[in-house]
Amino acid sequence: MARARRGQGELEGQVLGALREAGGPVTAAWVQERLGGDLAYTTVVTILTRLLAKEVVARERQGRSFLWTPTADVARLAALRMRRLLDGERDREAVLASFVTVLPPGDEQVLRALLESAGPGRGKRRNTPRTEGGGTED
Length: 138
Hints:
This protein is mainly alpha-helical. Helices cover about 50% and strands about 10% of the residues. The chain has a two-stranded antiparallel ribbon. A hairpin with a 2-residue loop joins strand 1 and strand 2. The termini are far apart.
């Protein structure tokens, strides 16, 4: 019987989760073993490299391979995915408005509180300046 296909970003979340459980820098082989199954070593390295590009992991050379360490959590990775989806839309305001209207009341209150605690004008910015590294200036 064929294995069910993973959802978009699910494997990245699993790899990042394994790294966070490691308690220190680990190799791609360790991550592969931790995730089990029939996951190829090259797939793990590809995912780790993608996470490095997203700046949610760091690596340091050890001999001929690398040791990998998480620099963010799964929530940060999910936020980056949400941001990438939003960046791909032409009408950001419409997407954000639709997003807010489908939130359960509790989530809406959490979002409002987070925007308020972020400071004056933080939630009202239209054009976010980009830094050379592709992030935003904060």
